[in-house]
Structure formats: C-alpha cells, structure tokens
Amino acid sequence: MMGDWVLSLMMLTAVALLGGAAVSWRARKDRKRALLMVVLAAVIVANVVIWTLPGPDGAQSPLQQAGQDQ
User: Fold this and answer.
1) What is the predicted pLDDT for the residue at 27?
2) Where are the alpha helices (DSSP H) in the chain?
3) What is the DSSP letter of 56?
4) What is the pLDDT of residues 50-69, one digit of tens each?
5) Can you state the angle between helices 31-52 and 62-69, rounded to 10 degrees?
6) Contact, 53 vs 64, CB < 8 A?
7) Could you read off the pLDDT of 9-47 as tens digits, one per residue?
8) CA triple 10-33-21, angle to 5 deg
9) Percent composition of the chain: helix, strand, coil (DSSP 3-state, to 5)
10) How far is 19 from 57, CA to CA, in rounded Å?
C-alpha cells in the first residue's frame, strides 16, 4: 500500500534529521539549525502517530480509512 511506504519514508527522514541535528550540535556550528531539525523531526513523528493511531471510538485509523475510500 502506498501509505505504508510514505510513512516509512517519513520515519527514515525523522531519524536522519535527528542524526544531522546531533552532528550539528556536537560540532557547535549552528545550534539554531540543530534545534530546528529536532522540532521538524518531532512534527514528522507526530504526523505519523496521528495517521496510524485508531480513532477515539476504537475504529480504524485515518490511514486505513483512506485506503478503503479508493
């Protein structure tokens, strides 16, 4: 399914951003950029969580619902 591929790519991107932030922080080059990378990774992870958790009534997740609409 296309959604699974996109979510996997988003998680890999978040991990890469965290790695880049760690390298930038340790090199003391640009701490503002490192902090922004961490914030962006957190936003990406939050989006993945929103798309994969079931709804409040225990129904399907938004990703599953989107797959059925096609």
Assistant:
1) 84
2) 2-27, 31-52, 62-69
3) T
4) 888 876 766 766 666 666 65
5) 60
6) no
7) 999 999 999 999 999 998 877 889 999 999 999 999 999
8) 55
9) 80, 0, 20
10) 37
